[in-house]
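INFO batch 0412 | record 1 of 1 | parsing
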Amino acid sequence: MTTVDSFGSKGVLDVKGAEYEIFRLNKVEGAEKLPYSLKVLLENLLRTEDGANVTAEQIKALASWNPDAQPDTEIQFTPARVIMQDFTGVPCVVDLATMREAIQDLGGDPERVNPLSPAELVIDHSVQIDSFGNDAAIERNMEIEYERNGERYKFLRWGQTAFDDFKVVPPGMGIVHQVNIENLARTVMTREVDGVLRAYPDSCVGTDSHTTMVNGLGVLGWGVGGIEAEAAMLGQPVSMLIPRVVGFKLTGSIPAGATATDVVLTITEMLRQHGVVGKFVEFYGEGVGSVPLANRATIGNMSPEFGSTAAMFPIDEVTLDYLRLTGRTAEQVDLVEAYTKEQGMWHDPSSEVKYSEYLELDLSTVVPSISGPKRPQDRIELSDSKHQFRKDLHNYATQDEAGEGRPSKLVDVSMEDGRQFQLDHGAVSIASITSCTNTSNPSVMMAAGVLARNAVAKGLKSKPWVKTSVAPGSRVVTDYYEKSGLRESLNDLGFNVVGYGCTTCIGNSGPLESEISEAIQENDLSVTAVLSGNRNFEGRINPDVKMNYLASPPLVVAYALAGTMDFDFENEALGQDAEGNDVFLKDIWPDPTEVQKIIDESIDTEMFTSQYGTIFDGDERWQSLETPSGSTFEWDEQSTYVRKPPYFEGMTMQPDAVSDISGARVLLKLGDSVTTDHISPAGSFKSDTPAGKYLLENGVERKDFNSYGSRRGNHEVMIRGTFANIRIKNQLLDGVEGGFTRDFTQDGAPQAYVYDAAQNYAAAGTPLVVLGGKEYGSGSSRDWAAKGTALLGVKAVITESFERIHRSNLIGMGVLPLQFPEGENADSLGLTGTETFDISGITALNEGTTPKTVKVTATGEDGKVTEFDAVVRIDTPGEAEYYRNGGILQYVLRQIASKA
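INFO prediction complete | emitting tokens
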């Protein structure tokens, strides 16, 4: 790429004798008035200006940004690097491997398919909590992880050797976002370009929506689908509209009884209510300087739960102190300080920056909170938690009311080891300190340890039916637990370290003990999970658990002691001490001054340099894996983990013309807030499902099924699990939950698995559509939510509104995203989902124009015709190119092949 430099911005920055090429923002009029996050974008455009994809006009438009205007100007953002976790990373590498073969078929050199931007993959999503509550748990879970995932790990090791600029962090090292802020993030990047060392702001896109955690470090980044990440790795810029930026002012300080988790749950509720989908959020004001970096990261992490694209904190002394603590070199820290001050990107709370919208939070008003039972934004003050649980329980339990106005159903349980107890609705079956959101934050992790120490001193124990676990985001957490002496107290309550990975937060909670699971299923108990994570969607945490709550790490421990969500911490005792005195939560709650003292005494730079010095090496298991070689991968036709996907079959250098959609049937009719968790295969699955039947037919025993996430490299498993979430409600069926639909290819349109019906439609040559409501595709940026949709034969999704990433991913897979006319939805238009759909007007794309609307004609079984103009949600010219080519990967492949 040839840089044009229309503004003469290229210059040299001297940092203590070291020279770096930079692109100065002060050469562009208006740059100094931009919010911090837009300055990062402006530098990006200056550095990548080529007169074609990035033009002087785009740069001027960004520099003269009007905070009050609605986004209408497209720019091309080129992220500095790509970061992935293994669930989404494996299909990325599968696709890159497949592209190598496809370019060979088109007459090109397979080795031309390589990441052009640094790409790093952290294996953190595969560890499951099979063993818990004992010192041997972590070793046993690691053993099982390698047994389950050996095929995938060999494939990833091949990728690390076959592709340039691609690194893999092996299993057991930590959670991707925590590893990112503690080690991988550069804050300011350096790279040799044409023999000159260039410095520029670190930025990234990641195949996980919580990539935004790095926003707390002043790094602009957000989650994208795997297909978009692959394009970024291959040098394709991310098309985006210059966003609105919401200024969020922080004042005051967190009160003694509250934690950073309570702050982030409060901010999540505020921003969801305000509405920030598709916007940047930027924190500003005098109070920002007093927000610790770990708290900034906790807040940035939850950006997807707000709905925003990014949740940025600027760079200041707090940033530099964190970089020093985590072992970054003195030269790197000096560069970050000098570069950001030179570019006007250093935080100056006195400078006047205008934002599109404003919000403010006085941190002193934050109170202890949890959120649930199924969405992160549904915050509940802890003092009201028992009352709210009883209200919510009526949505999950239908038994006759008994005692204090709530359903009750006491069930006797006898365990093989002699434990005996009674389970009831609301029983806490899982209490897990997990997820990058909080395990990266010493203030809440140490608070959990201190609370455990205080509880043990009072003679309290976790209830015998609670599955307890700690899954830190990095090994440094264990180091400071050891040094502080708090690990022993956590172990005494059953909170042993079970692994270094996402575990419970992504559904890898592992099975409940069999007696407990059977009691829950046989008596239809509505039990609960409490976790210190960021996601608590229906069906996500564990198949036996209906109600899921997010809470701070110390509250996770507290709920393990209480054993039930039907508990009032202010007025009910957790137990009695040795003298028979009641012990309340306030009696064991950690003193924040003591917590800070322990942090200061227990965490040092050497912990970070020691743990991260060998981050890419892995343990003996990793190093002893057989590693295939060669520029193309030798696919194993017997593999049930890694298979060559069909995306490029029959592909030619020129794309086929776009055609209208005729005679389509509705595969699913869905309501509001259908998440990518509902759409994309995730968690475990049973042997009578299409995915289970496929594995059994291919010689896999039930005990070796593993999870959907671990089999993301096998499209055959993933297609069968798309729209198969146990809690999805398809309105084509009455009162049925799970992956079922009506099959209109059969007489009487009987109930069938979604996959089986889709196969019948494909055999009949019938295209498919999906009808949805508001916020379709919210949640994690799961690329398989789009890939599975496309491979099932869905040609269009018609909804009231989309979440940003999923809409983009649908286009990336050649699926047309449409919206009902403003104020209308399927029900208001009288659509039942039994109609046949024709969609016309999309062929305008063949002439190079993107239509604003297309005509949809729905013909009912009785002949009734309903017509409406659906809004086409192809928002940028770049997206139009992807759709014309049948998807983003096909577009990139043709671009590479054409330059051969």
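INFO post-check: The first helix runs from residue 36 to 48.
INFO record closed
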